[in-house]
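Internal ticket - ligand job 629, adenosine-5'-diphosphate:
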Amino acid sequence: MATGKINVSVENIFPLIKKFLYSDHEIFLRELISNATDATLKLKHLSSLGEAKLEYGNPMIEVKIDKEGKKLHIIDQGIGMSEEEVKKYINDIAFSGAEEFLDKYKDADKDSGIIGHFGLGFYSSFMVADKVEIITKSYTDEPAVHWSCDGSPKFNLKKSNKKERGTEIILSIADDSTEFLEENRVTELLQKYNKFMPIPIKFGTKTETLPKPEDAKEDDPAPTIEVDNIINNPNPAWTKKPADLKQEDYKNFYRELYPMQFEEPLFHIHLNVDYPFNLTGILYFPKLTNDLSIQKDRIQLYQNQVFVTDNVEGIVPEFLTMLRGVIDSPDIPLNVSRSYLQADGAVKKISSYITRKVADKLTSLFKHNREDFEKKWNDIKIVIEYGMLSEEKFFEKADKFALYPTVDGTYFTFEELKEKIKALQTDKDDKLVVLYASDKESQHSYIEAAKAKGFEVLLLDSPIVPHLMQKLETSNEKLSFARVDADHLDNLIKKEDTQISKLSDEEKEKLKANIEEVTTDKGYTVQLEAMDSEASPFIITEPEFMRRMKEMQQTGGGGGMFGMGNMPEMYNLIVNINHPLVSEILGTKTAKKRDRLINQSLDLARLSKGLLKGEELTKFISRSYEMIK
Ligand code: ADP
Ligand code: MG
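stdout (structure tokens):
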């Protein structure tokens, strides 16, 4: 038997450990199970080298709660430690590691995310325990030893009669940490941190029902047996070779990762690289909605199958944090702050590797089955558009597979779109004008009007697409986007049969004056157009520039430019001089009746554009009832 003092200069290191790690006590279990796993894997390695006459067998790690004794046991069948090794690895090295850590991070920001990603290891058990014991027997012939320490720097070391190889850690749980004696809490921790660790972890037993024997009577209960309750899957899909996995395996693994997620992923990307850094993993594309914020923090980061965090910011490019799945890398430095992480060379390489893999996967999906890719487009476009905006490298690749759907469900690539538009929609300056709608419902009449003119209308409805349009316009000088209800539509040159006006110049002037009299002070600029007689008599459009400015103001973008809260309302009123109603306005003799016709037509146009609201809408409706009464 021996007593001694742990080799450490800080007398009261335990209170310090406890206080410093205040927020993250639960990681002690991960640390102890990691050690048990390491010890077992070392044994496996030795036996594979033919070292000693080792019986590797089927080792597992067991976690046991002793509620009465207020103890938590972590037992492994690994390599164990001799007395010398306990002295060396526990008393000296582990402790100086802890001391060094505390020294380094004494002043560190508690919320910087470093806590829990360090290497305090074994000594983190003092965050939750008053007393810690190690009973361990080395795989060699050395006798077993029993180490204990009650939280002061003094330890006690004696012989033990433990027969089996391996290590048992016994924590006498402190009064303020009794949560770790609750089965539910421990299950939760094992599920969070150890779900995919490489050695089976047993926690209690469970009852399994066996098939009834053939000669059983109908109401005989089915026989049951008690079996080990294994918490983890030691061989998760990402550690296997892609060639050994079927589509179904990937789907099953997704369900394993997200048991509460009922929707299936759209496709997956298996990551596997070992030079210049080590990384494995599987990323999944889930169905995405247009809400960017709610879908983050679903990718889990592991280090050699030990869960580290689900905040992968800085490691995965921002636009891919909307994906799901697992990344496992021993090369990601975990004991440093986020800002350091972003500057780290290895991490940068990892980030661009992932971006490239995602782009390659999308390219191949597009090439091999375009039809299927088109079907998925709506559910994945948000990631791709976001990526095109934020990562230039990704933009270059995505430009070939990013799709631009029409309101009728035809999908163009950007090149195809340009070809199509060249033949169809140019303005007076020979610029290509891409017409689009952002909402099929509220812009319905405009879409119909544009289609009636033979134009192609895209449906671009994701929240970031205006920014992407801006980017495409900047890099393609001869091209601009215009929403269907924008003024651009009037400037488009229609290639075929241009409508001929039925009115004389004199009549036109009179008509314009009549309408302006009623509408100018309401902020409309009147424009006469000779259109198909079937098209609406009055159509309101808003200059593309004005609308975009307003939109950006709403999202906080261009507000500062004018330094004021509200942009002025500015609309064009397009009057179709070939429409019979317009002829009627022109032919009406009394000013009162004419003004009424103009007002009613204007209100209908406003209604169609969604501009008629509140009191005006109420008045319009009762006026309309009056008219048909
Ligand atoms: P680390 O795991 O980073 O080396 P720890 O403080 O967790 O640091 O552990 C210190 C050392 O104690 C380990 O490197 C190992 O040599 C020894 N050790 C801890 N737990 C066990 C165990 N269950 N079986 C065998 N050796 C162990
Ligand atoms: Mg450790």
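Auto-summary: Residues 31, 34-35, 121 surround magnesium ion (ligand 2) (CB under 6 Å). The CA atoms of residues 263 and 287 lie 8 Å apart.
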